[in-house]
Write a structure and sequence with these properties.
The complex is a heterotrimer.
Chain A: E1 2-8, E2 12-19, E3 23-31, H1 38-50, E4 57-63, E5 75-76, H2 79-90, E6 96-100, E7 105-110, E8 116-121, H3 130-139, H4 147-152, H5 165-177, H6 182-204, E9 210-213, H7 220-230, E10 234-235, H8 243-256
Parallel strand pairs in A: 1-4, 4-5, 6-9, 9-10
Antiparallel strand pairs in A: 1-2, 2-3, 6-7, 7-8
Chain B: H1 3-15, H2 17-26, E1 31-34, H3 41-46, E2 50-53, H4 75-85, E3 94-98, H5 102-114, E4 120-123, H6 132-153, H7 159-185, H8 190-199, H9 205-219, E5 229-235, H10 241-249, E6 252-259, H11 276-286, H12 299-310, E7 315-321, H13 325-340, E8 344-350, H14 358-370
Parallel strand pairs in B: 1-2, 1-3, 3-4, 5-6, 5-7, 7-8
Chain C: H1 18-38, E1 43-46, H2 53-58, E2 61-63, H3 65-74, H4 78-88, H5 96-107, E3 120-124, H6 130-142, E4 146-149, H7 161-182, H8 188-210, H9 222-234, H10 238-257, E5 268-273, H11 281-289, E6 293-297, H12 300-303, H13 311-318, H14 327-340, E7 345-351, H15 355-359, H16 361-372, E8 376-381, H17 391-408
Parallel strand pairs in C: 1-2, 1-3, 3-4, 5-6, 5-7, 7-8
Helix pairs in contact in C: 1-9, 1-10, 3-5, 4-5, 7-13, 8-10, 11-17, 14-16
Classes of the chains: A alpha/beta, B alpha/beta, C alpha/beta.
């Protein structure tokens, strides 16, 4: 039996096609914003890749920021619940899930059965989210994918203390102007995101094992800075960005049974 | 009147304070604005004036008030000042502002220069309100308000009239408490419930009492709402239509509230006393369980837990008005007490300048999904 | 960006200097409490504007969480402790002093500045209502008595008889509660002694800070921010009175000799409005010094003048502290300071941690600027949370202020 999970985020649309609630047959990540046809593209991609037709999908669940505007789902579930389900499936016994997305950060606390029992989301603020990294990467003339590599070369991470993205921007500019090396600045930026998110984690409670999901999970610089900040190891997977869609597809399977 | 018509009336009044103001002015009455959280409305009422609550406005962009306030003062202050500066309160004879929190202290000071055509009348409440010397100071605060009102409006104060107003307000309190109880067990949306509470701020209390009594009678005929998730909301206010809509869409039912704009106003009655002004001072002395009322035992914390238990609530949702220090300090003990009592709790930041409640929607949906 | 400061070899401090004495007193305020606690005596945490005469007369040891938070922040521990309480669920919107203190209550240790845990708390809200909530939470969590003196914000210029009566009743109530809790006894004679000393300290402080009337000023105004700690914590002690008198003498001597603790040419004289940015003391001070700008005065210069003749006078004095007075009185005090001390510009610290102080600061500053015909410039900062300050912004704003003052002097 096939189920489809669709995660419509602020910067990307993701789809996961799941077989029998276990095997990921195909998946797709399309860079697009809500209102554009990124969603249709992602679904088209997974169907084409698996050589299936829409009608063969038993249940579709939509989640994410844009879930309310999507008409073709059987159920609509919050991305908090979906990330919890997806992470529980992907990582053994995970108890804390840190999801840093394009425009918000979430921390989920799961019980032994993998059910979400508590959560916290960041304030209406860019700091501590993918947006912050975007702004900073822009100043440094780097692609966001280059940040982790740069951070790894740092010898003396700069201190970027401002909680406010606008202030931090001017801090970064000052530091570049005074000759601080780019890797050190990038390491400082990752540290800044990590300390913002760490505060959120502490509010929910640090329970191991901890995993990271969402787009920013691919940034090793942030992940390592978070590990250091919290004093614990944090796992992630290559499918980090698909956890929401995966969780939605699993939820769909549950409903279909 | 049928229940739909009644809800319609409450909604109409709650959403059009300006119309209410104009109505009273046209009838030859004078109106006095009352800033949050508590003011001696009974006194204003007794002097033949119409007290109207000013709690800022939802989805209002602040421009003029920025000249006075930095960004980190709460939106209730910002939007109230904004409305004052932009002439939305034109016709009001005076504004009474209590100094119950640090930001309220500055509202009065700024008002003197920002809204020169509406006189500012300070109400200085004591924090040590319970001992006899505190009651005496409350009374002194009232006397000053009376003096200022007499100058601003020409109205005269009489202890006899106040005794009557005290009774009117007590009756209103009782009716609002009954409404909250009945609403918990019958069919009503979060938005409708809020309209009933909000409209109280824009009407003479006796008029509101009459309408609410009718509503209670009709409400009792409606069925219980058994499939909803019962919640208690706590905070300064739950005023945003978007937010209330989210409650309703997610099947949450507000069965009790600890909101400054709603039930906190109606918990305490004016006691019996031959001296009506003394009695009103004693009312303030008896008040508790609020973030701006000093209490070293912080009874408010257990009050909220008990309220949730009493109403069989599955959770407590704290609507945290952004930049509200008193609520932010109380939040941690409240959160801990809920956790200790195994009551689910959620903290949602709210702000009157917010238009998009997407994140709150996600959190509330997840909250529901969690149970 | 600031050039790296050359580390000068510092000469040993002169033990007869006011600076040395004041430093000792400030340190002793903490060590006395720690020793007392070790001896098994009760120790209290006290609000900075709580009537110090009460614990001093009763012979109680108290220490000051606000002062501790400032010290911790100045020594670099602000972010660490703020993060700790934020982890507990305290919003980062709350005053950073409170966040630091609540964290310290939990951690019980901070290498930047330790202090014994309290057996009771003395709260007075003439500085702000946040104090009430902060101390409520300490009292509740540690299960210790809270003595609360409510000194309401005064919307009028003068203190009313009703307020004096209310405050007086609370002073006595507090005294009686403390007698019960601690077993100590109030003595009118001892109170008279403390009143004398407090008056002496206050008079010396006011006279010392008034030396800024000289041009150039015989002192760097930033010094006041440090010396102030003693006025907060120890004004009822004889050593403090003596040290303040020494300070006055030194300033007068500087004036005679034409020297100053402001090193370099004093090109511009400003008033600094607001609490210091403790985590960024060096950056804020250097940004001014490098441009020859001396902060010659601040409201603190006027603040600790607790001079009175009788008990009611004391109640009135505590009702007139900077944060409990209306805009007009607050403005007039500052206008007088600006005029007396020939101030050419006003630098306003919009302090993220303090809503009360920032609440009507914009309007008040405008009125001061108009009355004194001086430019007013503000910058964003925080008294104890280092994350709410941008050195680049500060520098730009100070530069702007300097340029206006320069133009006003008839320069380019």
């Amino acid at each position: 039996m096939f189920t489809l999970g669709v995660d419509i985020g602020s910067t990307t649309a993701k789809a996961v096609l799941l077989k029998d609630g276990e095997e990921i047959v195909s998946s797709s990540i399309v860079v697009a914003t809500v209102g554009t046809d990124g969603v249709s593209q992602a679904i088209e991609n997974v169907l084409r890749e698996s050589r299936m037709k829409r009608a063969e999908i038993r249940v579709t669940v939509v989640t994410g920021y844009g879930r309310k505007t999507y008409p073709n789902a059987d159920f609509q579930v919050s991305e908090l619940t979906c990330h919890a389900i997806g992470a529980h499936h992907e990582f053994d016994n995970v108890r804390t899930v840190i999801d840093i997305g394009g425009q918000d950060a979430k921390v989920l606390s799961l019980n032994e059965e993998g059910r979400m029992v508590n959560f916290a989301m960041n304030d209406k603020c860019a700091a501590g989210t993918g947006r912050f990294l975007d702004v900073m990467a822009n100043i440094l003339n780097l692609d966001i994918s280059q940040l982790a590599g740069e951070a790894a070369k740092a010898t003396a991470p700069a201190n970027i203390s401002s909680t406010c993205t606008v202030f931090a921007e001017s801090e970064v500019i000052s530091q570049l102007a005074s000759g601080i090396k780019i890797p050190d600045v990038v390491a400082g930026i990752c540290q800044s995101v990590a300390s913002r998110v760490a505060a959120l984690v502490k509010r929910v409670g640090v329970r191991e094992p901890i995993c990271m999901t969402g787009g920013v999970a691919r940034n090793d610089g942030v992940r390592r800075a978070l590990e250091k900040e919290l004093g614990v190891g944090i796992t992630t997977s290559e499918r980090a960005q698909l956890m929401g869609a995966l969780g939605a597809a699993l939820y769909a399977y549950d409903k279909a049974k | 009147m049928g229940i739909d018509e009644l809800f319609g009336q409450f909604h109409e009044i709650a959403s059009s304070p300006r119309k209410q103001l104009d109505k009273y002015l046209a009838a030859g009455k004078k109106v006095v604005a009352c800033a949050p959280i508590y003011t001696p409305e009974e006194i204003i009422h007794s002097m033949g004036l119409v007290p109207m609550g000013v709690w800022g406005a939802e989805e209002l962009e602040v421009h003029e008030a920025k000249k006075y306030y930095p960004a980190f003062i709460c939106s209730v202050m910002q939007t109230t000042l904004e409305l004052g500066i932009t002439g939305k309160y034109k016709g009001v004879s005076a504004i009474v502002i209590p100094s119950l929190c640090d930001s309220l202290k500055s509202l009065g000071e700024n008002w003197k220069y920002a809204v020169k055509d509406i006189p500012f009348i300070p109400m200085t409440y004591p924090q040590n309100r319970k001992p006899a010397y505190g009651v005496k100071f409350t009374k002194a605060g009232y006397e000053r308000v009376i003096e200022n009102l007499e100058v601003a409006t020409g109205a005269r104060f009489s202890g006899f009239a106040l005794a009557n107003s005290n009774r009117v307000y007590n009756e209103h309190n009782a009716v609002m408490r009954e409404f909250a109880e009945v609403a918990a067990e019958h069919t009503i949306t979060a938005a409708q419930r809020h309209d009933v509470f909000k409209s109280a701020w824009f009407m003479l209390k006796e008029e509101h009492t009459a309408l609410v009594k009718q509503l209670i009678a009709e409400l009792k005929k409606t069925p219980e709402e058994k499939n909803k998730m019962r919640v208690v909301v706590s905070g300064i206010m739950a005023d945003s239509p978007s937010l209330l809509g989210i409650f309703d869409r997610n099947g949450l039912k507000i069965v009790a509230d600890d909101l400054a704009q709603e039930s906190r106003q109606y918990r305490t009655d004016v006691p019996e006393n031959a001296d009506s002004l003394e009695a009103l001072a004693q009312k303030f002395a008896a008040m508790d369980n609020c973030c701006v009322l000093y209490d070293k035992d912080k009874k408010r914390v257990n009050y909220i837990v008990d309220l949730a238990k009493k109403q069989n609530a599955a959770g407590v949702i704290v609507l945290m008005t952004k930049f509200c220090d008193p609520e932010e300090f109380d939040y941690v003990p409240i959160k801990r007490a809920c956790e200790a009592a195994h009551i689910k709790n959620l903290n949602i930041e709210v702000d009157q300048q917010m238009v998009n409640y997407e994140q709150a929607g996600t959190m509330i949906q997840a909250f529901r999904e969690m149970s | 960006m600031m050039a790296e400061e050359v580390r000068k070899k510092r000469p040993a401090p002169d033990p007869n200097s006011a600076k040395y004495k004041l430093g000792q007193i400030a340190a002793k305020a903490y060590s006395d409490c720690i020793e007392a606690k070790k001896r098994g005596e009760m120790v209290g945490w006290c609000a900075s504007n709580f009537p110090v005469e009460i614990p001093e007369t009763l012979g109680l040891h108290v220490c000051y969480p606000e002062n501790q938070a400032a010290a911790i922040a100045a020594r670099g521990g602000g972010e660490r402790l703020c993060s700790e309480s934020e982890g507990e669920g305290y919003s980062n919107d709350i005053c950073a002093y409170a966040r630091i203190s609540l964290a310290y209550m939990k951690l019980k240790k901070a290498p930047e500045q330790d202090m014994p845990q309290p057996d009771f708390v003395l709260c007075c809200n003439n500085i702000c209502n946040c104090m009430i909530k902060w101390y409520e939470n300490i009292s509740k969590e540690l299960n210790i008595p809270m003595i609360m003196i409510d000194i309401p914000f005064n919307p009028d210029y003068e203190v009313s008889p009703a307020q004096i009566e209310y405050v007086r009743a609370q002073f006595w109530d507090a005294i009686h509660q403390l007698e019960k809790i601690t077993g100590k006894k109030w003595s009118d004679e001892r109170f008279r002694e403390v009143k004398e000393i407090s008056g002496r300290s206050s008079r010396a402080w006011l006279a010392a800070t008034a030396c800024a009337k000289y041009t150039p000023s015989p002192f760097n105004g930033f010094d006041l921010l440090n010396h102030m700690a003693v006025m907060v914590t120890a004004r009822g002690k004889k050593e403090a009175a003596e040290a303040m008198e020494t300070l006055l003498k030194e300033y007068e001597e500087n004036h005679q000799k034409g020297t100053s603790t402001f090193h370099g040419e004093e090109k511009y004289r400003i008033m600094f409005e607001g609490i210091a940015c403790w985590p960024w003391l060096r950056a804020t001070s250097t940004g001014l010094k490098n441009r020859g700008i001396n902060m010659v005065t601040t409201i603190y210069a006027d603040a600790f003048g607790f001079i009175y003749d009788d008990f009611d006078g004391m109640c009135r004095a505590y009702s007139r502290v900077p944060n409990a007075i209306n805009l007009e009185l607050a403005r007039d005090k500052r206008i007088k300071l600006c005029r007396d001390n020939h101030v050419e510009g006003l630098l306003v610290h919009t302090n993220r941690s303090c809503k009360l102080w920032s609440g009507f600061m914009a309007e008040m500053s405008r009125q001061i600027g108009e009355a004194c015909n001086i430019p007013v410039v503000s910058f964003d900062g925080d008294q104890a949370d280092p994350r709410n300050f941008s050195e680049a912004q500060y520098d730009t704003r100070v530069q702007g202020l300097m340029e206006i003052m320069e133009a006003n002097k008839g320069g380019h």
